[in-house]
Amino acid sequence: MPIAVLVRTLLLFALALALAAPAQSDDYRDKAEALEALRERISVIESDLEERQVQRDQVATELRSLEQAIGDTLRRLEALDHRVEARKTQAEELREAVDAQEQAVAGHRQVLQREIRDAYTSGRQQYLKLLLNQEDPAALDRLLVYVDYIGRARSERIREAMAAMEDYRAMRAELHDELDELDGLRREQEEERERLAERRRVRESVLARVEAAIGDDQDRLERLEGDEEELQALVDELQQALADIADEEVEQAPFQERRGELPWPVGGELAAGFGDRRSSGGDWHGVLVRADPGTRVEAVSYGRVVFANWLRGLGLLLIIDHGDGYMTLYGYNESLYKDVGDWVDSGDVIARVGDSGGRDQAGLYFELRVEGQPEDPLSWLDSNRP
Questions:
Q1: What is each CA distance from 329 to 103, 105, 348, 351, 364, in whole angstroms?
Q2: 289 three-class SS
Q3: Secondary structure class of 350 (helix, strand, coil)
Q4: In the chain, how many H helices and how many E strands?
Q5: Rounded CA gap, 336 and 129, in Å?
Q6: Is the dihedral of CA 43, 44, 47, 53 positive or negative?
Q7: 335 phi and psi, to 5 degrees?
Q8: 100-to-79, 139, 167, 172 alpha-carbon distances in Å
Q9: Residues 186 and 130: beta-carbon distance below 8 Å
Q10: Apex CA 45: angle with CA 332 and CA 256, to 5°?
């Protein structure tokens, strides 16, 4: 290719990059600003929601604070558990390395003792006698080379022995620090567990006060209706907040095309189905799946978290927007693992099963909404329940 053509081609390519870069930067900035605007609007919605709940029920507000604190503690405790296990593994690996280095150092120490003893006993006099007794110049040259080689080899062995012992000391110091760190993490673990136990004890007394405040069945029904109205208002407000935020473009099948194929968010016994009558009155607008406390709750499809907070009647609740008016709701969790604005994919762990919201048994409440209205999740979930 002629030089002029090559230069012109490179200039055009550079110009194209220069023009494209601002566009990409603007696109990224626009998305970041839109996401920040979404977070701010949802934060306002959450603040308004919290204020309304405080006005409605002081005891429920106390329960909210306790269950949020329990969820945060469980999340920190799990993170601590992971750190402790990682530190234990690292400490064991270090201990094995220290043991191996200790054996190596024992061999190096013998070499060092022998070399120092030999150097002391022979000194320079032995080499001087050998040199003075040589009459053949060629033999003298060979002897000088040999003496130099012996000296360098001895010095190298001494350096290796000293370096091995220095490594051993450093590894022992590192192991000591690692064990100190592990002890600190274990103490922190124990403190978190004690804090968790105390908060759970307080929660029991608050639940008793909640029950006492509810009163008769009519009060329960009115409370349930109020909770449902609160949830509907929340969903409507979230939809309005999302209306101005463009959906992320991804190479995945649209949510509406996955009817009957969605994975279950958690495995377990189906305790209540869509439309079933609640014991306290009213109908279930989703499904209730019994599961052990702490069981992983997984997102059923790709989407963005638009709510991750406590809501009366549903406890620690997480809502995912899947675009095109589709949302999934996950309630009664003991802890939440995602925050507003986070993108999640199918199978991502988003929470842990719990009994928040004043429940007496652990389980996951799962709803699916289309344009704000609940639909039967069973028609969307895989028929093979885990």
A1: 59, 61, 15, 12, 10
A2: strand
A3: strand
A4: 5, 10
A5: 84
A6: negative
A7: -160, 150
A8: 32, 44, 12, 12
A9: no
A10: 65
Centre a 10 Å sphere on the Cβ of residue 337 and count the other Cβ atoms it contains.
20
Q: What is the pLDDT along the chain (386 residues), one digit of tens a residue?
A: 444 443 344 344 444 444 444 444 455 455 556 556 666 666 666 666 666 555 456 677 778 888 888 888 888 888 888 888 888 888 888 788 777 777 776 766 666 666 566 655 555 445 545 444 544 455 545 544 555 555 565 566 666 666 666 776 777 777 778 788 878 878 887 888 888 788 888 887 777 776 665 555 456 566 667 777 878 888 888 877 776 655 555 567 889 999 999 999 999 999 999 999 887 677 899 999 999 999 999 999 999 999 999 988 899 999 999 998 999 999 999 999 999 889 999 999 999 999 998 888 899 999 999 999 999 999 999 988 77
Contact in structure between 258 and 380 (CB atoms under 8 Å): yes
**Which residues in 74-108 are b (16+ Cβ under 10 Å) and which e?**
bbbbeebeeebeebeeebeebeeebeebeebbeeb
Query: Identity (one letter) of the amino acid at 347?
Result: G
Cα 199 from Cα 58, distance rounded (Å):
18
Report yes or no: 240 and 234 within 8 Å, Cβ to Cβ: no
Residue with tokens 């996951």, as numbered in its chain:
364
What is the CA angle 365-368-369, rounded to 5?
A: 130
- The type of residue at 25 is S
